[in-house]
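G.,

No rush on this.
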Amino acid sequence: VQLQASGGGLVQAGGSLRLSCAASGRTFSSYAVGWFRQAPGKEREFVAAVKWGGGSTYYADSVKGRFTISRDNAKNTVYLQMNSLKPEDTAVYYCAAAPVWWSSSWPLNGMDYWGEGTQVTVSS
């Protein structure tokens, strides 16, 4: 599975962006997909995840109620709709795929595949 994240950009606080994670590979629908982010000088952190069928999602507390993750397996794409953006959401955002599902504490080393990041910058 190869992943490519896109959709990042510069937005004012309170604005919205939608990130996309396009995947190649026939087995994409059997993977859970997570979004992670890494701000300058900080460790990479979990943001949101969606199960292979799209029926289950999980969010970090910091984005709950503002971000929505979804997937379209027919298009091999996972989306992250980000609303009410804050300056602290500024980071490089990465998507990753895993063959298992965690109900909490998504581990970085549990991902089988990573995409290139896309920069999100939120100005105050």
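When you get to it, here's the other one too:
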Amino acid sequence: QVPLVESGGGSVQAGASLRLSCAVSLDTFSRNAVAWFRQAEGKEREWVATIDSTGTNLDVADSVKGRFTISQDNAANTVSLQMNSLKPEDTAMYYCAARSGGGSYRYQGSYRYWGQGTRVTVSS
């Protein structure tokens, strides 16, 4: 069973919204946080948002603060990224990642499990 599966990407106009979902097939012992990263073509992967397993501790990158919201539904085992007021610079492949250890939650190296990604394209 694939531990993380993303969905919800697509092509939209600037100003539109998208909701990405990550289906998490990991028990709570295998993950203490789930994050979204993104990678634009020709650029390094960057951290977008993280939520811990309790759902009470979360953070988003300054570049998306006020526009993106991370949340989780423990009953459905999903972590979502609500993206509003999308901009062309949000165009990227978006990845869901999960970790069970410590270290900076903004650092991709601290995440053990990764999904295959879902593409978001925002046109002006």
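The first strand starts at residue 4 and ends at 7. The CA atoms of residues 30 and 100 lie 5 Å apart.

Enjoy the weekend,
O.
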